[in-house]
Amino acid sequence: MSYADRDKYGIYQSGTSVGPGPALMGADTLLGEDVVNGANENLGDIKEIMLDMQTGQVAYAVLAFGGFLGMGEKLFAVPWQALHLDTANKRFVLDIDKERLKTASGFDKHAWPDMSDVQWSSLVHTFYGTDPARAGGPSMGPGSTRAALDSSAGTSTDPRAGNLGGDSDLSRIRGSNIG
Questions:
Q1: Cα Rg of the chain, angstroms
Q2: Confidence (pLDDT) at 153
Q3: Are 78 and 61 in contact (CB under 8 A)?
Q4: Whose CA is closest to 166, among 155, 175, 67, 91?
Q5: CA dist., res. 106 & res. 73, Å (int)
Q6: Are 18 and 31 in contact (CB under 8 A)?
């Protein structure tokens, strides 16, 4: 089930030029969203979105990986900026090898880490290759990898006039949320 299927309020009405999606999205519709890697391997789904209450930015997506029917699954805090929104397939892409993800520092649903701890945050950002000092969110576009997204400017499904779909256009639309 994709975010468009969980859309209770018509945010992502297809074929219209009104509504905020996909440049602005409802957090509730992203819970349960599939995450794949560049090789199209399933990495799990988003269980929670963590907000930094000091900045108002989304800090992490909590990804569930492994297990069966919720049993034995491991949770991972993935920096929000490490994700790419694939608008064509309505899913997130995380550029990481599945075997490497298995080595990430994860946690059990009954033992969450202190995500506000600077040392913990630094380790997570180092693992995913993101910058903890940079505010920002997922890049957006129809491709499934950073290279594909970078080469797909002008193909965004964002209906706003003048938006060519590149990160610079998103920065104009969303302010400092995307760097």
A1: 16
A2: 38
A3: yes
A4: 155
A5: 10
A6: no
Which domains are present in the chain? 27-177 (2.30.30.240)
d(CA 53, CA 166): 28
Write the DSSP assignment of the chain as a string of letters. --TTTT-SS-TT-TT-S-S-TTTS--HHHHTT-EEE-TT--EEEEEEEEEE-TTT--EEEEEEEESSBTTBT-EEEEEEGGGEEEETTTTEEEE-S-HHHHTTS--B-TTS---TT-HHHHHHHHHHHT--TT-----EEES-SSHHHHHTTTT-----STT--SSHHHHHHHHGGG--
Q: Name the residue type at position 78.
A: V
- Separation CA 130–CA 122 (nearest Å): 9
Backbone dihedral region for residue 140 (phi beyond 0: left; psi -120 to 50: alpha; all else: beta): beta
Whether the predicted model's global pTM rises above the 0.85 cut:
no
pLDDT digits (tens, 9 = 90+) for 114-141: 998 999 999 999 999 998 877 666 665 5
The answer to whether residue 61 scores a pLDDT higher than 90 is yes
In percent, the amount of the chain with pLDDT more than 90 equals 38
Amino acid making up residue 93: V
Return the ∠ at Cα 130 (arms to 126 and 132), rounded to 5°: 85
